[in-house]
Amino acid sequence: MKIVLRPAARRDVILQVGYYIDELAYEAAERFPAAVETAVQQIAERPDIGSLQFFDSPKLKGLRCRPVPGFEDIRIYYLQLQPGLIRVIRILHGRRDLAEIFNAPEE
Questions:
Q1: What is the reported pTM?
Q2: Based on the number of CB atoms within 10 Å of its own CB, is 12 exposed (0-12), middle (13-18) or buried (19 or more)?
Q3: Domain range spanning residue 40?
Q4: Alpha-carbon span 71 to 67, nearest angstrom
Q5: pLDDT (0 to 100) of residue 99
Q6: Residue 11: exposure state from Cβ atoms within 10 A (0-12, 13-18, ≥19)
Q7: What is the average pLDDT value for the chain, to the nearest integer?
Q8: Most buried of 12, 17, 46, 71 (most Cβ within 10 A)?
Q9: What's the domain count of the chain?
Q10: Dist. CA 42–CA 53, nearest whole Å
Q11: CB count, 10 Å around CB of 2?
């Protein structure tokens, strides 16, 4: 299974690590990237593992989310574009205004 992380998803990981550093949670900052990798591997093994999400944009039809192990408030949002290809759209805290983020024009 090929996994492609959009640039925004990569930035999300960096921003989350920065948040933990700002909060002096260095151990969490060190663990977070590996936890994301674990979640991505779980998704690669079973793409239907995440719960379906629903947004207005037709581009997001079939969007799923999966929590990051050990950081359950942080979710990986992804699409299975075709058999063998998954695109990670964003990695965000579940309390963010997801409708606003996902329905905004692309960068």
A1: 0.90
A2: buried
A3: 2-103
A4: 7
A5: 80
A6: middle
A7: 91
A8: 12
A9: 1
A10: 18
A11: 10
Classify residue 60 by burial, with Cβ atoms within 10 Å: 0-12, 13-18, 19+.
middle
CA of residue 34 relative to chain centroid, distance? 13
Round the CA-based radius of gyration of the chain to a whole number and report it: 13
Which pair of tokens denotes residue 68? 């990051």
Closest CA to 55 of 100, 7, 24: 100
Mean pLDDT along residues 21-40: 94
**What CATH number did the domain enclosing 78 receive?**
3.30.2310.20
Say whether 8 sits in a helix, a strand or coil.
Answer: helix
pLDDT number for residue 106 = 61
User: Could you tell me which of 99, 107, 89, 81 has the C-alpha nearest to residue 40?
Assistant: 89
What DSSP letter does each residue of 20-74 carry, written as one string?
HHHTT-HHHHHHHHHHHHHHHHHHHH-GGGSEE---S-GGGTT-EEEEETTEEEE
Weakest-pLDDT range from 24-38, 42-56, 89-103: 89-103
Give the residue with greater pLDDT, 48 vs 57.
48
